[in-house]
Design brief:
It is a single chain. With 467 residues, the protein is mainly β. It is 9% helix and 45% strand.
Length: 467
Amino acid sequence: MARLDAHTSRRLPAPGGNESRKTLRSLLPHWAAAGIGLGTIVLGAPGHADTSGAYYESFGDFLRQTKFHGNLRSYYFSRTYTGEATNQYAYSLGGYAGLLTAPLYHFQAGLTLGAGNSLGLNPANPAAVDTTLPGGTVWVLTEAFLQYRHKYLTLRGPDQILDTPWINPSDSRIKPSAYRAFYGELTPFADHAPLKGLSFVGLRVFEFNGRAEGSFSPTNLYFPGHAGGSPVSALYGKSTPGALAFGLKYGSPGKPLTAQLWYNKFIDFSQLLWFDGSFVHKTGTGFDPLFGFQFGSQWSDGNNLLAQVGRGAAGNIQIYGLLAGIDTPYVRLTASYNGITRQNGAFGNGALLSPYTTGYATDYLYTTQMIGGMIEMQSPGSAFKVAATSYLMDKQIKVLVSYGGYYITPTSTFTSNPYETDVDVTYSFPKSSGLDGLSIRNRFGWQNGNIQRQDFFYNRLQIQYQF
């Protein structure tokens, strides 16, 4: 379910030498599996095979119905601090390209290659580089899967991009995060209108590929080595079996009512029960009130790795969220609140754990801003956010302005009252210009409350061509 105030907003050492060869060897079995599967699907089909209602007159017809996708991205990021921290900047050129074969007997194969390169334009001083953009050359098959897709059932695996509230793409850099996982979704009421939008989801994650990395690993963003994560140094050399999740979803983007209920098990970290619902009251006047509600309950899991290294296990806490606003022909206005209860002695005195988004600022809390939110601050408390979104020039220009304030238990990194202001402007070229798919976006964030950085000014210039 799309967030009502969704923001879109990824680094291990760049592959090289023996590391590159090791990474290549580790990926070959997965490429081979996808390639063999693709070849079997294509070559095993007769010219007039029954393909979920489609008939292919020739191999060329099959190729014409195969879907190709991708983008090219040119990003320049700069970080300026007024405190005792080194200013940073970085450039990266890259993106991703992929395909999804036409279905044959409900089977499809998918391949997506993600890559990025700094073109040697980053500072010579490593401390002056914004490492959330890939340094050197990074490339990886973010997707290499076989998929079975039927009206009532979808099965997919292994390497893929997942999109659930707490296991998501975090696609705000050159390439998205990816997961070595198996995913299944059941839609038993696809033919029954009242329940058509109801689906049941199950997934199991084994390994993770961060958005600035060239390989998968049995870790998450609390482990050292991930650019932009929230590393706990004592976890160096350790690993996790991954995660599993089960979800119940209702509705789809654009529908007045959407809701989802998820159980997440981040193995040896935490368990999280999560509900997220939204409703837009369509008045027919163009002025539509909208409402959202979030609730979560977290508790520790298994042989907790954070407790083993002396940081405290995940707290037994509750999370609340409220959102209200109005959608008009000119602007969407929203105000939102999140609260997280406290447990002394737990990790972060009851901080909400988010192993696959922490440090990325791409979680589903209403009050998360571009630079960060309550997940990144690793502290309980409360937060509010106000936002205005407007489209201009027949939706060629999108402007988003927001302010978030946080009232947390002080930590060694943040004061008790951090705040952040964001301005986000996107210009998309019209189809008539001949540059359809090209967009220029500038995101600016100003965060205050970090003890070392003090005022933190973050500017992101993002040029993208989508094809």
